[in-house]
């Protein structure tokens, strides 16, 4: 096997414009691709410099159910500051909690896709 990285993770959404506002304006991700294709709009966002991107897959772009993605872990250098930013934006956050591997919190996007924030513990 010669796999080097994951290309994209699909996040099923019901409204791509609303999802874009959340992922770009609230989470601070960058649009890496946004083009209308015959099957529908192909919209991708990612943290700056990331190899793996998130495809915000809207209606018609596969057999995906909005809000069905779970366990998407976003690593951050300051989970507490990011949780405060989410709360200020009106996003309910659970945590952060101190765990053996770091400090972690969870929240959902506007469609209910489950996301987590993690500040990793050094040496773990």
Topology:
Layout: E1 8-12, H1 16-26, E2 30-37, E3 40-46, E4 53-57, E5 72-75, H2 79-88, E6 94-99, E7 102-108, E8 114-120
Parallel strand pairs: 1-4, 5-8
Antiparallel strand pairs: 2-3, 3-4, 6-7, 7-8
Outline, from the CA principal axes? globular
Count of helical stretches = 2
On the 0-100 scale, what is the average pLDDT? 94
| Share in helix | 10-25%
First and last CA, distance: 27 Å
Structural class of the helix and strand makeup? alpha/beta
The assembly state of the depicted protein chains is single chain
Largest β sheet strand count, sense and barrel closure: 4 strands, mixed
Order of helices and strands: EHEEEEHEEE
Strand order of the largest sheet: 1-4-3-2
Give the uncertain stretches in residue-range form.
none
Number of strands: 8
DSSP strand (E) fraction?
A: 35-45%
Radius of gyration: 15 Å
Task: Label this structure with key terms.
globular; alpha/beta; 124 residues; 2 helices; 40% strand; 17% helix
Characterize the structure shown.
- It is a single chain.
- Strand 6 and strand 7 form a beta hairpin.
- Strands 1-4-3-2 form a four-stranded mixed β-sheet, with helices on one face.
- The chain is 17% helix and 40% strand.
- It is globular, with a radius of gyration of 15 Å.
- It is built from two helices and eight strands, in the order βαββββαβββ.
- The mean pLDDT is 94.
- The chain is α/β, with parallel strands linked by helices and 124 residues long.
């Amino acid at each position: 096997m010669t796999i080097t990285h994951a290309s994209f993770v699909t996040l099923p959404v019901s409204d791509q414009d609303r999802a874009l506002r959340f992922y770009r304006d609230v989470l601070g991700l960058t649009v890496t691709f946004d083009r209308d294709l015959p099957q529908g709009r192909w919209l991708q966002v990612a943290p700056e410099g990331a190899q793996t991107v998130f495809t915000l897959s809207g209606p018609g772009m596969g057999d995906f159910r909005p809000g069905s993605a779970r366990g998407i872990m976003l690593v951050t250098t300051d989970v507490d500051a990011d949780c405060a930013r989410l709360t200020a934006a009106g996003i309910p956050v659970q945590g952060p909690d101190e765990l053996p591997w770091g400090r972690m919190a969870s929240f959902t996007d506007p469609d209910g896709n489950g996301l987590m924030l993690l500040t990793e513990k050094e040496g773990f």
